[in-house]
Write a structure and sequence with these properties.
This protein is mainly alpha-helical. It has helices at 2-11, 15-78, 81-90, 138-153.
C-alpha cells in the first residue's frame, strides 16, 4: 500500500502546475482570438483600400468623359460653318466664280457610274440550278437512307 501511495504522490500534480496549465490554456485562447482579430483587420483594410481605389478609378473615368465631351464641344464650335467662313476670310480665301474654274482632262480616266444595286440578270434564280443535295431537307435525306436500307435487306 505504501508503494501505491508513493506512486500516486509522485504522479499527482502540484497546485502551481495546475495553475500554470490553466494560465497557459487561457493565454493560448487569447492568442488565438488575437490572431483571428488581426486577420480580420488585415482583410477588412485590404477591402477598404481596394474599394477606395475603385472609387478613384470611377471618378477618373467620369473626369475623362467630361474632358472628352468638352473637347468634342470645342471641335464642333471650331468646325462650325460661321467659324470656318471667318477663318477663310482671314486667310484671304473667297468663293470661286464659275469663270475662274479650269477643268483638266486626264487621259484614261473613266468616271464611275456609282454603285449598281440591281442583280445581274444572268444570275437570276431561274437560270442558276442548285444541285438536289443542297435543297434536300433532313427528313428527305433520312427517308432516302431508310429506303436504301430497306432495299438492301430484301
Amino acid at each position: 500500500m505504501k508503494s501505491i501511495n508513493t506512486l500516486n504522490h509522485a504522479y499527482s500534480q502540484a497546485p502551481w502546475r495546475i495553475q500554470r496549465q490553466w494560465i497557459s490554456v487561457f493565454l493560448l485562447t487569447v492568442l488565438g482570438f488575437a490572431i483571428i482579430a488581426a486577420l480580420y483587420l488585415i482583410i477588412t483594410s485590404r477591402a477598404a483600400i481596394l474599394g477606395r481605389e475603385v472609387q478613384d478609378l470611377r471618378s477618373a473615368i467620369i473626369e475623362t468623359e467630361l474632358t472628352n465631351a468638352n473637347l468634342q464641344s470645342d471641335l464642333g464650335h471650331l468646325t462650325s460653318k460661321n467659324k470656318i467662313k471667318i477663318q477663310a476670310y482671314i486667310l484671304n480665301f473667297r468663293p470661286v466664280n464659275p469663270e475662274e474654274l479650269e477643268y483638266l482632262f486626264v487621259p484614261g480616266y473613266t468616271r464611275s457610274t456609282g454603285a449598281v444595286l440591281a442583280t445581274d440578270p444572268e444570275l437570276s434564280p431561274s437560270t442558276v440550278s442548285i444541285p438536289f443535295k443542297y435543297t434536300e431537307t433532313l427528313l428527305d435525306w433520312y427517308d432516302t437512307q431508310m429506303q436504301m436500307i430497306n432495299r438492301g435487306s430484301r
